[in-house]
Amino acid sequence: MALRNEAPAQVATVAVFRHRTLADREDLLGRLMLAPAMAYVLLLVGAPLVLALLLSFSAATAGSLSFSWVGLRNFATIVSDPQFHSALSNTVLFTVVSQALVVILATAGAFVLDAAFVGRRLVRFLILLPWAAPVSLAAMAWTWIFDSTFSVINWTLKVAGVLHGWFYWFGDPTLAKIAIIAVHVWRTFPFATVIVLAGRASIPRDISEAAVIDGAGFWRKLFQVEMPLLLPIVTVAVLFGVVFTSTDLGIVYLLTRGGPYNSTHVLASLAFQRGILGADLGQGAAIALFLLPVLIVVAAAMLRLARRTEVGT
């Protein structure tokens, strides 16, 4: 009787597996779920990138349908342009200085926010506001903060007796660069802090406690125990910051328009000025694509460093 009862059950099981649904086919289901993301990348990232590559090798201009192939002439022209050199050096300067400050501030902020204190959740929420705020709205606020007449920084320093002259933030090239770096740090700092905070939360407490038991002080525990474990997370935060800062157009264009005297242009704003406002699409595309190989190499190197560090730990 037991054998007779088992036979129908086996037949039913075989019948179920013969009529597999879409949920049972993981390979096909995975492709279908990835399809919208792949379509987004191809249509909104891949197609404009290919178009920009084609434009950079042409003499295309706005308002004209002609497309004449000029090879590397656009790249040769911008390489010999002093304004391009200034924009390239500004891009590197803003990216390196702002991200160095972001790493220091984000690490310190993650340690503070990881401590237990009243209102910690509210502070974490407020930390994220600069990252969530629209770039245009934030740039308008910072334009008033650095205004030559109504600057709250100038008035505060004046009342405190620290400032005896007056800072014309957007009228002096050095002060304008400092203002742009400050806004980049203000905008990127919350995102990096959240990433480092998440990485710090993933470190087992036993490691820190063992370091304290072994006699390690705060600084020794920080640089010899916790920072090596946080290095992969910090590398990812720096990578995002480098990409966002080096390709950003909004902050520079909304704050200074590249001034004064075209001294604060970055590659993105110079490409916009030449390609859109100047109607030279070929040269604008060449300027915009100039950092693409460099960013690819930097991204690959940083991800490889993070992987090596993670495997080594």
Notable characteristics:
313 residues; mainly alpha; MetI-like fold; 15 helices
Describe this entry's structure for a reader.
By secondary structure, this protein is mainly alpha-helical. The chain has a single domain (82-312), classed as MetI-like fold. 74% of the residues lie in helices and 0% in strands. Helix 2 (26-56) packs across helix 14. It is globular and about 70 Å long. The chain starts with a helix and ends with a helix. The chain crosses the membrane at residues 39-72, 92-113, 125-146, 166-186, 229-255, 285-306. This is Sugar ABC transporter permease.
Layout of helices and strands:
Blueprint: H1 2-18, H2 26-56, H3 73-79, H4 82-114, H5 120-127, H6 129-132, H7 135-145, H8 152-159, H9 173-201, H10 205-213, H11 218-246, H12 250-255, H13 267-277, H14 281-289, H15 292-312
Major beta-sheet overview? none
Q: What form results from the Cα inertia axes?
A: globular
Class by SSE composition: mainly alpha
The name of the CATH architecture is: Orthogonal Bundle
- The CATH homology group name: MetI-like
Transmembrane segments: 39-72, 92-113, 125-146, 166-186, 229-255, 285-306
InterPro entries: MetI-like, MetI-like_sf
Membrane topology: Multi-pass membrane protein
Protein name: Sugar ABC transporter permease
